[in-house]
Amino acid sequence: MNLALAPETLARWQFGITTVYHFLFVPLTISLAAITAGLQTAWVRTGKEKYFHATKFWGKLFLINIAMGVVTGLVQEFQFGMNWSAYSRFVGDVFGAPLAMEALLAFFFESTFIGLWIFGWDRLPKKIHCACIWIVAVGTVLSSYFILAANSWMQHPVGYTVDKATGKARLTDIWAVLTQNTTLVVVFHTLTAAFLTGAAFIVGISSLHLWRARRKQLKGEELGEKQRKQIPAMVASLRVGLVVAVIAGLGTAISGDSLGKVMFEQQPMKMAAAEALWDTQAPAPFSVFAVGDVSQGHNSVEIEVPGLLSFLAHSNFTDSVPGINDIAAQEAGRYGGKAEDYIPSIFMTFWGFRLMIGFGMTSFAAGLVGLWTTRRKLWLAPEHRPAEGTIPRLMLTRTRELSPSLTAWSWRVGILTMGFPLIANSFGWIFTEMGRQPWAVYGLMRTDSAVSPGVSQGEVLTSLVVFTLLYAVLAVVEVRLLTKYAKAGPDTDEKPPAKDPKLRLPSARDGGGGGSSSAEAAEDADKPLTFAY
Amino acid sequence: MHLHDFWFLLIAVLWTGYFFLEGFDFGIGVLTKTLAKDRTERRVLINTIGPVWDANEVWMITAAGATFAAFPDWYAAFFSGFYLPLLAVLVCLILRGVAFEYRHKRSGERWQSNWEHVIFWCSLLSAFLWGTIFAAMVRGVPIGADGDFTGGPADLVSPYALLGGLGMLVLFTFHGAVFAALKTDGDIRHRARVHAGRLGLAAVVVAGAFLGWTQAQSGNGRSLAALVVALLALAGALVLNRAGREGWAFTLSGVAVAALSATLFLALFPDVMPSSSDPAWSLTVSGAASSPYTLKITTWVAAVMTPVVIGYQAWTYWVFRKRIGTRHIPAGH
């Protein structure tokens, strides 16, 4: 059989495409849920309209996004069984438990309370309504925790034995699975990256609106009434986005460093591949750029920072870091077969690792610069402090504004940065998963023995084509819808509910008592819904 | 009772909950073309399930996740065996979910009518496909000695399986019509009741035939009892619907759906997937189950969380208990 069309290859392509696609929506969902919840809380507590408009605006974009996250998540749950039945049978005893917990603890939370939130604006008391979006946010975090615990077990299996009679993995310690350091660090890294993603999204779209308005002002044109009214909500959003980007960016860097150290211990091959470090070295250099010759097992071109890799792995500049050739020989000795069978795609891991860090940290840096230049008080001459709700000028020092061309470029970078974490996340997962190859479960089950034996090439090919086409069409639909709503900006004509809704509907039988007259009740019963599908 | 028997019961309950809840969702989806006269009425129907359809679907996701955890062999053989039908289900559920969320987000005529077609066809097909899949599973599919599916797509199709698909489709549509009568107001409410009357008769015939065939082919004493409950509930729902007791009619149409689901699971037990190649190779409750340790942990989680989930989901239905009529639909989209 043609190897390029072997069921294993097709199933891997399908997993890669559907998972990377799904993970475009996941981090945005996690972070936008929490940030929208924060904005709504600000509105409930202060009553300021700008927070109401910001909540509604980001909430709308959040909903367009979560719809895709939910439906593409269905595929994830089905395809373990569909394409990877041998894997499912082998790991089900261990892997299934966190998945079932995810469904029971997280999915029900998310799906039930998102419905309440969408339709509840005029049905639920303000505070309860606000609590609903918080519960959704908690649901998204719980969900990522459980699925990452399951993934971490594939990266570093713990708390199990392999049953001698059946040859299957058997869970012996659920706490080990739920609390091993791989899980905890990965959860920390993924969540901070998710918040960086949402923050960059908010910074990007707020910058788009503010820069559009600012350019008009610079040209001496009058802003339209709608545009003027949108500015306070967009300024508030920009600040929130920048603060979250900086905190989350810092968290991503710290957790990424910890995760790297854990991986140097648990999967040295993945980290050696990430650095294209062919031979064990002490001290080991960090590779900035390399062109490898995989067949010969060395790099033909390389630019390096001496000792830095030792520092990343062991926190000192001298210790030895094992290289690809040595680890491969070791694994071949331990598990049988040829050494080169144990080497993942060096090209993908090396560049995936660099693109992840590069794009992620660019957004972090953009956040830092943005937070500094748009500051409101700190180290700023009083006459340069922006008035409440006006577009901030980008201030470099106490009295100096960025030059007009630098200002223009800064706003443009702010807009562009919204896509960077999405690229970083995708390459991060591609690196993590491809760097584990040839293993599906590290050290226990190889990917080529994980596929469904009973599924034909034609079937896998069909589903690969169907999902790819369907996802492509949906991507066009989704992006166009997002663009439409993002460009329109907050609907400033929308007014917050005049009175706080009560849980009990006023019924016609209530008569005069309790403040609700029957006339009011009748009117209420006929009132159109404020929101309907 | 062994833990694995308890888990078989729990998974049956999850699927039953799914059929009960998303059954009327699917029915509503089908009715958007057969009951609603215009876009406003279509929106009335869609909005009766708007806040709840997503959580209803999670019952299925949980059923699948619980199967993975409690019966890995069942999960592996089921999902790889029913490959193409499940692919079709996935496509339908993806498109249908997006359709609910995106239809109202643009005002263009083509945009809206396209998504409305999606809602109708994907609801109809999902109901039909689940029916065929479950019927084929009860009937038995080729499974080898090592527990793997050994057949091809043709082994999943049979007159019995197709009747199963039709039976679930008609029953769910009836269930949906009764739900529509309970949740709407005005003209559409009365037409929903008339519609339900006709659909109920069709359900008695088609779902009745499917149940009878199931009993004759794979039945036992317990499944017979469930079958009788299903038929009695169906008849009761018809009578109460005619009498205008909408709440009770809905309760009984729900009981009918649940009893149909129970009949299938009782006909399966103690197998989870009978093998048509050799009965000795059938996957059984005890053979396909996870280790006692895993079952014990998941039992704790399920025992604590299931009542909580049912509690807050029920609360959602209470919050959105108001009937919806055409006058409640805001203008515009």
From TrEMBL, chain A:
<feature type="compositionally biased region" description="Basic and acidic residues">
    <location>
        <begin position="490"/>
        <end position="503"/>
    </location>
</feature>
<keyword id="KW-0813">Transport</keyword>
<feature type="transmembrane region" description="Helical">
    <location>
        <begin position="231"/>
        <end position="254"/>
    </location>
</feature>
<dbReference type="GO" id="GO:0016682">
    <property type="term" value="F:oxidoreductase activity, acting on diphenols and related substances as donors, oxygen as acceptor"/>
</dbReference>
<keyword id="KW-1003">Cell membrane</keyword>
<comment type="similarity">
    <text>Belongs to the cytochrome ubiquinol oxidase subunit 1 family.</text>
</comment>
<feature type="transmembrane region" description="Helical">
    <location>
        <begin position="186"/>
        <end position="211"/>
    </location>
</feature>
<keyword id="KW-0349">Heme</keyword>
<feature type="transmembrane region" description="Helical">
    <location>
        <begin position="409"/>
        <end position="431"/>
    </location>
</feature>
<keyword id="KW-0479">Metal-binding</keyword>
<dbReference type="Pfam" id="PF01654">
    <property type="entry name" value="Cyt_bd_oxida_I"/>
</dbReference>
<feature type="transmembrane region" description="Helical">
    <location>
        <begin position="20"/>
        <end position="45"/>
    </location>
</feature>
<dbReference type="InterPro" id="IPR002585">
    <property type="entry name" value="Cyt-d_ubiquinol_oxidase_su_1"/>
</dbReference>
<dbReference type="GO" id="GO:0046872">
    <property type="term" value="F:metal ion binding"/>
</dbReference>
<keyword id="KW-1133">Transmembrane helix</keyword>
<feature type="transmembrane region" description="Helical">
    <location>
        <begin position="131"/>
        <end position="154"/>
    </location>
</feature>
<dbReference type="GO" id="GO:0009055">
    <property type="term" value="F:electron transfer activity"/>
</dbReference>
<feature type="transmembrane region" description="Helical">
    <location>
        <begin position="95"/>
        <end position="119"/>
    </location>
</feature>
<dbReference type="GO" id="GO:0005886">
    <property type="term" value="C:plasma membrane"/>
</dbReference>
<keyword id="KW-0812">Transmembrane</keyword>
<keyword id="KW-0408">Iron</keyword>
<feature type="transmembrane region" description="Helical">
    <location>
        <begin position="57"/>
        <end position="75"/>
    </location>
</feature>
From TrEMBL, chain B:
<keyword id="KW-0479">Metal-binding</keyword>
<feature type="transmembrane region" description="Helical">
    <location>
        <begin position="160"/>
        <end position="182"/>
    </location>
</feature>
<feature type="transmembrane region" description="Helical">
    <location>
        <begin position="77"/>
        <end position="98"/>
    </location>
</feature>
<keyword id="KW-0813">Transport</keyword>
<comment type="similarity">
    <text>Belongs to the cytochrome ubiquinol oxidase subunit 2 family.</text>
</comment>
<keyword id="KW-0249">Electron transport</keyword>
<dbReference type="GO" id="GO:0046872">
    <property type="term" value="F:metal ion binding"/>
</dbReference>
<feature type="transmembrane region" description="Helical">
    <location>
        <begin position="222"/>
        <end position="240"/>
    </location>
</feature>
<dbReference type="GO" id="GO:0016682">
    <property type="term" value="F:oxidoreductase activity, acting on diphenols and related substances as donors, oxygen as acceptor"/>
</dbReference>
<dbReference type="InterPro" id="IPR003317">
    <property type="entry name" value="Cyt-d_oxidase_su2"/>
</dbReference>
<protein>
    <submittedName>
        <fullName>Cytochrome c oxidase assembly protein</fullName>
    </submittedName>
</protein>
<feature type="transmembrane region" description="Helical">
    <location>
        <begin position="247"/>
        <end position="269"/>
    </location>
</feature>
<dbReference type="GO" id="GO:0019646">
    <property type="term" value="P:aerobic electron transport chain"/>
</dbReference>
<dbReference type="Pfam" id="PF02322">
    <property type="entry name" value="Cyt_bd_oxida_II"/>
</dbReference>
<feature type="transmembrane region" description="Helical">
    <location>
        <begin position="118"/>
        <end position="140"/>
    </location>
</feature>
<feature type="transmembrane region" description="Helical">
    <location>
        <begin position="300"/>
        <end position="320"/>
    </location>
</feature>
<keyword id="KW-1003">Cell membrane</keyword>
<feature type="transmembrane region" description="Helical">
    <location>
        <begin position="194"/>
        <end position="216"/>
    </location>
</feature>
<keyword id="KW-0472">Membrane</keyword>
<keyword id="KW-0812">Transmembrane</keyword>
<dbReference type="GO" id="GO:0070069">
    <property type="term" value="C:cytochrome complex"/>
</dbReference>
<feature type="transmembrane region" description="Helical">
    <location>
        <begin position="52"/>
        <end position="71"/>
    </location>
</feature>
